[in-house]
Amino acid sequence: MTRFLLVMPPLTGHVNPAAGIAAELTARGHQVAWTGTESVLRPLLGPDAVVLGTGTRAFRAQGGHGLAALRSLWEGFIVPYARFTAKPLDSVVREFRPDVLLVDQHTPAGALVAHRHGLPWASFAPGAMELGRPYRALPQVEAWMTGLLRGLWERARLPAEEYLDPRFSPALVLATTGPALTGDPAPPPEHALVGPVLPARPADPDFPWGRLLPGRRRVLVTMGTLAGELGADFHARAARALALCGPDVQPVIAAPRALLPSLPELPAGAVLVDRAPVLELMGRGELDAVLCHGGMNTVGEALAHGLPLVTAPIRHDQPFVAAQVVAAGAGLRLPFARVGPERLALALREALDAPGLRENAGRVGRALLAGGGAVAAADRLEALAP
Hints:
globular; Rossmann fold; 13 strands; alpha/beta; 386 residues
């Protein structure tokens, strides 16, 4: 039996795929513990998960677009979260005594602690941004990011001559994507592109299943958990667009309750929930297309179920992922801030009606699933154990 410690940020899109890997490791007889913000991890993982908390603290919300969003992510979350969790993580490692750590790329403190204790560790990349050098054409931006990471290394009092980028384990980088969505047919050998991880999740009896109308074509609208206020206006435009799509289309809109006052009158039969059981809807064959922000999890899940996409990327790796979906012929991309209801309605109808998009979505999905998912990830992690 190997003791695995998963170091994860308080971000749903990062925890959910890691949970599938953790379930596979547990099924193989290994001991798995999580560390991070317990108030976020516990509701996602359930009462039986071993969660070794690092404390709770509010961090500045990620806002803006482009480089402004990148600055907000790093200076408002990644760096302060690493500083806040550094000492608790060291205590967790001393207490739990893991054999291997799986460290999310947004929690570099986990890599620093692993290095200090001489423990094998793997990087976890549930998004596409950190797999390559997306800012190689902007050397000042790359230098700024490297400076922040070196600052964390120095703060941890690790030897300067041993510095390595804590986002990339030299032993293993697990990524929940595949060549079809990275544009790189030959990733480095330490990169394991395992494709989407589709964990078994409990059935959701609270979802209004009885409101799904027979004979309708359904579009899921989900803009992720971090769109915040930016999502309010887009959801309003999406609601108008779905009304223009015609009576044969039934929207399923997952939006925070805080956005409800900003939404116009919804199309007849629309289902509006604050959280949708996405994998259950897809697995039951209840969806025909997905409108989303281009997040890696949502895109991977949709393609794994052969669903064409309409993406309106907001920030971070979303524009890159959306571009790869278009390049693969599996979906369409629209400008998040500027697209109007009429243009959005045309794109949605194309996603529903164009057989080529659906065929390509199925093809790409099969290629992604060939990465092996949680089983392949667990195989690679087991190989790191001493």
